[in-house]
Fold these 2 entries.
Entry 1:
Amino acid sequence: MTATNGDTRTVYRTCPLCEATCGLELRLEGRDIALVRGDRDDVFSHGFLCPKGTALKQLESDPDRLRRPQVRHGDSWREVSWDDAFAEVERGLMPILDRHGRDAVAMYIGNPNVHNLAGQLYNRVLIQALGSGNLYSASTVDQMPKQVSAGLMFGTALSIPIPDIDRTDHLLMLGANPFASNGSLMTAPDYPGRIRALRARGGKLVVVDPRRSKTAEAADEHLFIRPGTDAPFLFAIVHTLFANGLVSMGDVAGHVNGVDDVERLARRFDPDAVAPVCGIDAATIRRTAREVAAAPRAAVYARIGTCTQEFGTLASWLVDVVNCLTGNLDRAGGAMFTKPATGSANTGGTSGVGRGVRFGRRRSRVRGLPEMFGELPVVCLAEEIDTPGDGQVRGMITVAGNPVLSTPDSGRLDRALASLEFMVSVDIYKNETTRHANVILPPEGVLARSHYDLAFYQLSIRNIANYSPPVVDLAPGEMAESEILLRLANVVAGAGAAADPGALDDLVVAGLAQKAVQRAGSNVEGRDPDELLAALASRNGPERILDLMLRTGPYGDGFGADPSGLSLEVLEAAPHGVDLGPLQPRIPEVLRTPSGKIELAPEPIAEDVARLEASLTRGRNGDMLLVGRRDLRSNNSWMHNLDILVKGKERCTLHVHPDDAARLGVDEGGAACVRSRRGQLAVTVEVTDAIMPGVVSIPHGWGHGMDGADLSVAAGRPGVNSNVLADGDLFDPLSGNAVLNGIPVRVERS
Ligand SMILES: Nc1nc2c(c(=O)[nH]1)N[C@H]1C(S)=C(S)[C@@H](COP(=O)(O)OP(=O)(O)OC[C@H]3O[C@@H](n4cnc5c(=O)[nH]c(N)nc54)[C@H](O)[C@@H]3O)O[C@H]1N2
Ligand SMILES: Nc1nc2c(c(=O)[nH]1)N[C@H]1C(S)=C(S)[C@@H](COP(=O)(O)OP(=O)(O)OC[C@H]3O[C@@H](n4cnc5c(=O)[nH]c(N)nc54)[C@H](O)[C@@H]3O)O[C@H]1N2
Ligand code: SF4
Ligand SMILES: [Mo]
């Protein structure tokens, strides 16, 4: 579609800013967004919208957003042509790769890649071309523990049970605040509406959180929990289920291994032993267990507060153990598996059995932490750069990431990035991280790209497919992110800065077509891949691959095999999306474990329980425990440059309970000094009884105003970087995930 200047038209797009995947109705004037509204006809969001969605207008027109490649020499930046930019990347990276080998260039992939078709489809091409063992992403400051537990239990890392929130009678939610975050690993627009509906039909919401969050305020019951103790709390629930004869697994009973092992492991976690540790009394723990067991349909759901902690994998695992033992796994109103239109690791290949997941196949150079599904824990990144020796990282590629604000021990990482020989960033801002780059390659604006939530429709509460085409052409001098990534892949593969990205794209799609016809049980099994490629010939780039995935996916037309099936053409004709219905039971077909069973007590997890047991008797010193929080108008670190989102009352504050404030001598509106083993900062105090005594909270993603960044609005309200306090030595050993919640700190008046 081409926009001519001056014309006004209405277009529909999925919001790319968070996991909720809301439908937007945009009024465009020429290339500009005049108005953003919720799309009332969207099959999933029905008009729901949050303030960030509206801010797409300001994001598109932000004068600080980069629109041309930038090259840095010393402290000065210059705008260059795309050809010159890629030539500079080649001059910078190739000598490092030639002299020191592939591992000498690291890559970090940030969160927006998961919201972006180009990132989803072409990062892997770049990763493969680079061939470095030093691959990092935001996954190890986020959901890696859930991927490990789901992978071990069900056989693939994204086989994550999703609470069937629209049909459940009882939702037990831990460490999540969807009223602010709009949900995660549980794609659904409009949590407030869905929670209202749950309560209106007589259901109950229980929120377990060291803060009385907005979600907790809307709940029937809120339990304060000591940070980092969700695993013992959930174990005590499991203990109660066994002790009171409440285990009843329903239809999945014949598909479960390891129930006896779980019973044995839970013995030490009597509610009486756990209560003083987690701060929830034993009677409440037992009642909570009985309520989950007694509800006609219940689901346990946990998110980032339970992942970014010392026992992240154990907590993530126990969530699904409780779902399974109470008969709520894989049944309507319980926790179910999505079946995505583009297919996934648990829709292809032999049904009901697989090779399971593998990780820990190699270790990081300096600290020896295990590889997780191809990447290393990001807590290792700084040391891999600043520790000399064979295999030291000397060059870096970042794609849509801001690890200087988002990962632990960020003071050290900031210094490490400054010491690199060469760094290239694919990013839309010159921010705290990309200011260290030698070259920044900024992708096109969101209107000029297509959108399809490949990742989140795998984790959605209904089966949904919704495609947004580009609604304006690339502006002169703009380059699509897909092309940037392909060109970078050509450079690091040694093909040269001038090599044709289109030729590489052809290779990529040919490889995927080949795989599709070889996949057992696929709807194109045994066909000639050239026949598929010919049928796709009118498209290229992300759309061509997406069409292939849709047509060979579980609802696909199989290139003629089922003419009523899905294809990109079908989605193009449905601008408000296609609803493929509520989740359906999928066990045993969804399983990809070697045994073909749900592994309720996988060995690596069972072995980690001793560490948790030991923590029950650990003494406590006088430290406060630091947790994070999210605000509806933030998006991790990168939307603070939009005045419409940051104006108003200061949000980057330290929440302190009134009793603690009195004891520590800190006052509302005054400054406090917060010190951890790793760093310290001064932050404005907000006294509130919405936080548990003994716990303090600072949101992450702030700490702007650094020299060399170009964020004029953010610099005016910088806030502090809570991750200078996070300790890179604290991580969940099973997943390598960083501990970002429950960090011991000292607080005093500053
Ligand atoms: N203490 C603490 N730390 C945390 C968390 C926490 O709860 N507490 N949460 C963690 C979590 S869950 C996450 S996901 C991480 C996020 O960590 P990161 O992904 O490292 O950080 P973001 O703030 O999401 O930065 C995104 C970057 O992408 C750029 N960008 C935005 N859109 C695009 C685009 O379309 N293309 C490109 N190429 N670039 C784009 C932005 O300018 C920004 O530089 O933070 C983690 N850090
Ligand atoms: N507005 C907004 N939306 C976002 C983001 C954003 O930055 N802003 N980020 C997006 C991203 S990348 C993600 S991953 C998701 C995350 O989505 P959510 O998981 O919903 O994240 P939060 O809103 O941070 O909620 C986490 C809650 O865990 C609590 N908590 C902390 N420690 C513990 C603990 O030890 N135990 C328990 N039980 N609770 C604890 C915190 O107090 C907090 O209320 O949000 C996404 N959506
Ligand atoms: S909730 Fe998420 S997807 Fe919906 S409008 Fe807000 S940022 Fe966009
Ligand atoms: Mo995240």
Note: The radius of gyration is 25 Å.
Entry 2:
Amino acid sequence: MVSSFISPLLLSLAACLPMAGAGNPGFVVRLTQNGLDYARQEGMRVLQQELAKIHIPDFSGSTHTHLGKVKYSFNSMTIRNFQLPSSQISPVANVGLKLSISGAFIEINGQWHVKALHISTKGGFDLKVEGLSISVGLKVGSDTSGRPTIGLSDCSNHISDVKIHVSGKLSWLVDVFRHNVDNALRKAIENQICPLVSNAITSKLEPLLQTLPVTAKIDSVAAIDYSLTGPPPVTADYVDVQLKGEFFELSHRTTPPFSPPTLTLPVDHSLMVYFGISDYLFNTAGFVYYSAGKLVFNVTDNMIPKEFNIRLNTSSFGVLIPQLSKMYPDMLMKLQISSTLAPSLNIKPGNVSLSPKLDIQAYVILPNSSLAPVFLLNLTTTAVAKVTVNSGRIVGNLDLSRIQMDLKHSDVGPFSVTLLNVAVNYYLSQVLLPQVNQILNKGYPLPLLDKVQLTDVVLQPQQDFLLLGANVHYGKAENSTWVNKF
Ligand SMILES: *[C@@H]1O[C@H](CO)[C@@H](O)[C@H](O)[C@H]1NC(C)=O
Ligand SMILES: *[C@@H]1O[C@H](CO)[C@@H](O)[C@H](O)[C@H]1NC(C)=O
Ligand SMILES: *[C@@H]1O[C@H](CO)[C@@H](O)[C@H](O)[C@H]1NC(C)=O
Ligand SMILES: *[C@@H]1O[C@H](CO)[C@@H](O)[C@H](O)[C@H]1NC(C)=O
Ligand SMILES: *[C@@H]1O[C@H](CO)[C@@H](O)[C@H](O)[C@H]1NC(C)=O
């Protein structure tokens, strides 16, 4: 529960240096005023605990009165209550964030001890430090690993009043040196506040920011680079954290042959955080898996549901292509389906689709297990993608809407490809697609800090990017599911 200081903030602090090569980020996290306010609330809880660690030193002194020299000491002071009832946070364009705390108060108990002439007396006191205001400037940046950073750029504080109430015999004596007590306490407290604020930032907030998964490993092939492209730009209304948002191949990283589009996030800021997920993220995924040779699938007869009567063998196919069963009587077949181009996602307002180009190479499996190529089809398909968010992951599901197919090459003589429509449609939609969807259903992780969950998720395809808006909940992971379809 410790590390909650300004968690959503961290999200958005991720960063955007305009210097890093290709310019545009592939992924933007926008923290709105609502998000900053939520972060502030969470942060205040932590800060309150930190500030309650103020150590109030014993102090003593002497003063001259009409009774002669009076020696006093105050000791055993403990903080009974420390409240930060009112605070504000606001982004300051091109600078960072400003946190203002006002009306804070501290209640302290302690013991006093006075010696005057031959009298020695003591009692207890209650002290209330009122009207404590703290002003904190925060600078946001990024480190060399591409993680967001936050630091104190300035800090000041002021106490408007110290009220002391003493009890015990001769407590009136305390009035004599009330002024000294007041000054000593102010100084002791004022000197400790900014160092404690600074400590809260380095010990609680910075470590939380360091939990940004700048490299999110997906599988044995690829990972997503979520590092900041530079220090987050701050405007008067929001903080944008700009991330690379790029898939890369773990074994050898190459530069994708295309760059991210410009993302223009809408001005609606009613939710705490908005993610702009550009088509670049998805297209680099397509590029990486295609380049790694992973977009190749085999279909064999044992994968085809029992109830479907066009089996993947030459007897079955021989009904459609008689030459096939003549050349290879009653043998099993195998299809190799491969993407002939890196697939790319087409994101438009209200619609996410892709049009992969596929080749299907058909083989006959000979009795000695070697493969004899029999024909090659080329296909253009259109698939509509449903994208949702589930437990902090972007999850997809494809639906095939159209298949066009041509015979590219035949080793068994010419035949009409339309005869194969029913079979190929079935194999693609009932055998290949479920495999692809199984992968897409696992999804990709969003760049979230530890213990940050998204609620009230809204997902909207915009031109060239997905806009994901959400509120943030910081706390123990509950593994709740938030799904939003469009
Ligand atoms: C598909 O079949 C080919 C040829 O038999 C084989 O080399 C390849 O490893 C198979 N691919 C998969 C993903 O099973
Ligand atoms: C091919 O499929 C037919 C059903 O269409 C079946 O009767 C036959 O046994 C199958 N042949 C092989 C080799 O699996
Ligand atoms: C989405 O785009 C696909 C491909 O461009 C198209 O077939 C489909 O009708 C579109 N759907 C909507 C709701 O616009
Ligand atoms: C398998 O059988 C075919 C045809 O009978 C032959 O051409 C091929 O060389 C054989 N392959 C192996 C690996 O034995
Ligand atoms: C198949 O490939 C040929 C030649 O490359 C091309 O002209 C044709 O449009 C392709 N057909 C489909 C359905 O993609």
Note: Confidence is low (pLDDT under 50) at residues 1-21, 478-486.
